[in-house]
Specification:
- This protein has 242 residues and is an alpha/beta fold.
- It has a single domain (8-231), classed as Rossmann fold (3-Layer(aba) Sandwich), CATH 3.40.50.880.
- The chain is built from 6 helices and 11 strands.
- It has helices at residues 22-28, 75-87, 97-105, 185-194, 202-211, 213-231, and strands at 8-11, 33-36, 55-57, 92-95, 109-111, 116-124, 137-144, 147-149, 154-159, 165-170, 174-177.
- The chain has a 9-stranded mixed β-sheet with strand order 2-1-3-4-11-10-9-6-7.
- Strand 3, helix 2 (75-87) and strand 4 form a beta-alpha-beta unit.
- Helix 2 crosses helix 3 (97-105).
- The two termini are 21 Å apart.
């Protein structure tokens, strides 16, 4: 019988970014999840018992990985947390800046890059990616800064039009997306309102996001099927919740 107390720990870095459309897929499979908000007063990163079933690291708006005023304050602590999770075989999903944290924790790195917002067309590079469920092409929305430098152990599963890693795998149960595969327009709109710094040409990119809405929703169905299977998230899942 599944243990009702087991949940995925979701690390949220600002009030705007959350799981978005991914929430529905987790709830539909009765996979519990709980948000941890280290950026709030009294907030903290999850402890070892919190992420025993899985760790999800979300994006962070204009915050990045490179040293400087835009660096995520909890970056180093999250790298250490993620390294421990990887060493213990805990499933990890990194999205946006979360993928940079995963990359660094796995022995890779990052390079400084300006804040960007783009709706990329992503191409699968490995036929059996996500147990064969990853679509050959799918849209991926990126809102963030800095670029990952892949660790030697990483397997790149998809790239964007510029040849940059869009989805990579570390070990059997850890995956990093350069953008948010379950983005909602409201997330971008809230980021614009929450932070004074925004990417250039922002208004020109918003119609692309709205036009890609149905394609994002359609692609997320097989993506989540593959992620749940590869990360083995149904093992020990309890009732849905947040």
């Amino acid at each position: 019988m599944p243990h009702a107390g087991r949940t995925l720990a979701i690390v949220q870095h600002d009030s705007a970014e959350y799981l978005g459309l991914i929430e529905d897929h987790l709830e539909g499979r009765q996979i519990r999840f709980r948000y941890h908000r280290p950026f709030t007063e009294g907030g903290r990163l999850p402890g070892a018992r919190d992420w025993a079933e899985g760790l999800v690291l979300l994006g962070a708006g204009p915050f990045g990985a490179a040293p400087g005023p835009s660096r995520l304050p909890s970056f180093d602590a999250e790298v250490a947390l993620t390294a421990t999770a990887l060493a213990e075989g805990v499933p990890v999903l990194g999205i946006g800046l979360g993928a940079l944290i995963l990359c660094k924790a796995a022995g890779g790195g990052f390079s400084a890059a300006p804040l960007t917002f783009e709706v990329a067309s992503v191409q699968r590079t490995v036929d059996d990616a996500l147990a064969g469920y990853l679509p050959a092409r799918f849209p991926l929305v990126r809102y963030g800064r800095d670029e990952p430098v892949m660790p030697a152990a990483a397997r790149v599963l998809a790239t964007d039009e510029a040849g940059r890693p869009a989805l990579f795998q570390v070990g059997e149960r850890a995956f990093g997306f350069s953008g948010h595969p379950g983005i909602k327009s409201a997330i971008i709109e809230d980021l614009i309102m929450e932070f004074p710094e925004t990417p250039p040409d922002l208004e020109l990119r918003l119609p692309d996001l709205r036009a890609a809405r149905d394609a994002i929703e359609d692609a997320l169905v097989p993506i989540m099927t593959g992620l749940v299977r590869c990360m083995r998230l149904m093992e020990g899942a309890g009732a849905a919740g947040a």
